[in-house]
Design a protein that fits this description.
Blueprint (H helix, E strand, L loop, with lengths): L29 H13 L12 H12 L7 H6 L2 E3 L6 E12 L5 E11 L3 E3 L1 H12 L2 E2 L1 H16 L3 E10 H4 L10 E8 H4 L1 H11 L2
Parallel strand pairs: 2-5
Antiparallel strand pairs: 1-4, 2-3, 3-6, 6-7
């Protein structure tokens, strides 16, 4: 992998091996690696010891991947697989795994997203629903904003009658530090269009999630 490769341009670079140094001389991002080297020193570690020598490179690559959503457009993601279809029934994609970084502590939060929409003459490829979740999850986030961003993007670019998003996540900033509550989860929802205005539509969507 050449120096300064941007992982946001490599959507399939998700395997652990992708973040390993190609060789002992590889420099991925000299500035980021220097900053991480300094952070390790400030933590009281020796960045030159065997186990940490290539850690700055690995961390730089991992952070680029985990924040690659900044370089991806939800609009372009959706437009790649938007089809004219006379479908009126609700479409629900459940159990979309996501991982994000809390913007307050840069610690991970992770869980599942459930997305539903009411088509208005157009449907989108199902994988693109999951990709839209990743577009916004792979940024520094708070769960509440993440939920709303997914709903707003789908509502706007699908032209749907309505969109519903429910997210359930575990936050390591609550589990590993602070109150240290390992079993706590946070649920957030965003309802747009018919899902917001029609209680029956909203109840139908929630019923799918409880099956």
């Amino acid at each position: 992998m050449p120096a300064h490769t941007n992982l946001s341009r490599l959507p399939d670079a998700h395997c652990a091996d992708s973040f390993e140094p190609a060789d002992e001389q590889e420099v991925y991002d000299a500035h980021k690696e220097h900053l991480i080297h300094e952070m390790l020193t400030q933590l009281g570690e020796d960045p030159e010891r065997e186990g940490l020598k290539r850690t700055p490179l690995r961390v730089a690559k991992a952070l680029d991947f985990l924040t690659s959503g900044y370089g991806i457009s939800a609009e372009e993601t959706i437009k790649k697989a938007l089809f004219e279809e006379d479908v009126r029934e609700m479409v629900v994609v459940r159990g979309i795994e996501f991982y994000s970084l809390c913007e307050h502590h840069m610690l991970p939060f992770f869980g599942q997203a459930h997305v539903g929409y009411l088509p208005n003459g157009k449907v989108v490829g199902l994988s693109k629903v999951a990709r839209v979740v990743d577009v916004f999850a792979r940024r520094l986030q708070v769960q509440e904003r993440l939920t709303s961003q997914i709903a707003d993007a789908l509502m706007e670019h699908l032209g749907a009658h309505g969109v519903a998003v429910v997210m359930e996540a575990s936050h390591t900033c609550m589990m590993m530090r602070g109150v240290q509550k390992q079993n706590s989860t946070t649920i957030s929802s965003a309802m747009r269009g018919t899902f917001e205005s029609d209680a029956r539509t909203r109840a139908e969507f929630m019923g799918f999630l409880n099956r």
